[in-house]
Amino acid sequence: MFSSSTMRRCREFIAKMCDATTGIPTKNGLPILGTSLSIIASGSAPKLHKYIHRRHEESGPVFRENMGTHSAVFVSDPEIMRLIFSVDGKHPRHFVPRPWSLFNEIHHSKRGLFFMDGEEWLAHRKPLNKHFLKKDVINRLNDVHTVVVDDLIGRLKKYEGGEIENLNFELYRHSLSFVIGSLLGSSYIETRKEYFDKLSELTEIFISIFETTSKLMVTPVDLVQKLGLPPWKKFEKAVMDSLESSRGIVKRMIVQQSPNGLLDKIMEEISNFDQIVAIVVDLLIAAGDTTAIANQWAIYLMAKNRIYQKKLLENPELIRGVFRETLRLYPSAIFVTRYMPEDVTLKDYTLKKNDLVTLSLYTSGRNGEVFPDPETFLPERWLRSNEKQNINQANSFLPFAMGVRSCIGAKLAQAHITMTIQEVTKAFDLTLKEEVEMILKLVPVPHKPVRIQISSRKNS
């Protein structure tokens, strides 16, 4: 009989075996099942980020894993990540959750930029870059954004002296309002009350899309759909409701748009109404997928680390560090994916054409060599005073990806999060009632509702 220590060393050796042709440590697991049983034993999809983090600790910054449903190369080295974005081609391809792609196939549904590939993607994305990524886009919309954030502060005041009820819903609704305001422009200031009921309706629909998608992701989706099982029917209804509701909103927005709004710019570049709707729906879904969740984690961190409320009030420039620390610890996209367009060798690793490369932002953000005391919320680490450290950290900070397929809403997202947190901190003293853990449901969410008690600063 082999001793347990010998067996452990054997497992470690096997885990670190490299594909001789690529130099990448590879773990194939069982035939057909791959490592899916190990993933399930580690907490399944909600804890996938922690499972992959442990695998990086075992096998290094680059490894390949056959997870049963698909095989992927995971990368946590920031330098290699940046190289990936430099070689991902003219039309970068990324992984699309199977429930979403299956819905599009069944319903012949045209969707926005996230779902496009090849020349179709480039033809729609390229003309929009100059509008969404221009330096002055935020300045032009500042009056609208100010009103939207003031609306949130006003709604939160009703919780004075108590806990915010359903913080997730409040921030999701706020994010949708922020995006619609950005699309409409200044006219939203006068017309926004017409959208309030629709905002609540869309918030419920989009939350349902993500909840049903996350449940389907751990099932054989095609079989669930073929059998017409409840998880698919709930998901299908949520997506169809979102498209129907969004079409009505877009029709109203087209009539009410202002020249400084982004919808005006979209319509300058795209004439097809269905395609305009598809792009707007993607932007609205992304508002909940990214900024609403990021805002929730930022408020959680500020309430948990109360000293930073005082520090931010004393030094408004610290908001940059609060923003970056939030997305370092809780990146809106835990994994960023790219399919390799051709064979390429990066450093000591060879990636093959069509390899699915998955960038592990959760792990790269916890690299102790780059971020000392990585599990601690330290907004000061991003201050410009520590120039050398700041450069290293900036090179490791990729929450919106890079290259031609980086997040088109990055500037809006940063403005949204920083303005929201700055103003919420000015208005309220935040107290965390209990800590939460992060789990994955497509995006990193709290494992239970975040409980925050607030009191107005004028009364504190």
CATH class of the largest domain: Mainly Alpha
What's the gyration radius in Å?
Answer: 23 Å
Distance between the termini: 68 Å
What's the main sheet like? 6 strands, mixed
Topology, number of strands = 12
User: Could you name the ranges where pLDDT drops below 50 across 5 or more consecutive residues?
Assistant: none
Task: Give me the CATH architecture of the largest domain, please.
Answer: Orthogonal Bundle
CA-based shape = globular
- Tally the helices: what do you get? 20
Strand order of the largest sheet: 1-2-3-4-8-5
Strand content: 5-15%
Number of domains: 3
Arithmetic mean of pLDDT: 91
Q: Could you say which structural class the secondary elements and strand pairing correspond to?
A: alpha+beta
Keywords: Heme, Iron, Metal-binding, Monooxygenase, Oxidoreductase
GO molecular function: heme binding; iron ion binding; monooxygenase activity; oxidoreductase activity, acting on paired donors, with incorporation or reduction of molecular oxygen
Family: Belongs to the cytochrome P450 family.
Protein name: Cytochrome P450
Task: Tell me what the structure shows.
One of its GO terms (molecular function) is iron ion binding. Belongs to the cytochrome P450 family. Its cofactor is heme. This protein has 460 residues and is of the alpha+beta class. It has three domains: 1-90 and 334-364, Uridine Diphospho-n-acetylenolpyruvylglucosamine Reductase, domain 2, CATH 3.30.43; 97-328 and 399-427, Cytochrome p450; 370-397, no CATH class. The protein is 54% helix and 11% strand. It has a six-stranded mixed beta sheet with strand order 1-2-3-4-8-5, sandwiched between helices. α6 packs antiparallel against α14 and α11 runs antiparallel to α13. It is globular, with a radius of gyration of 23 Å. The chain starts with a helix and ends with a strand.
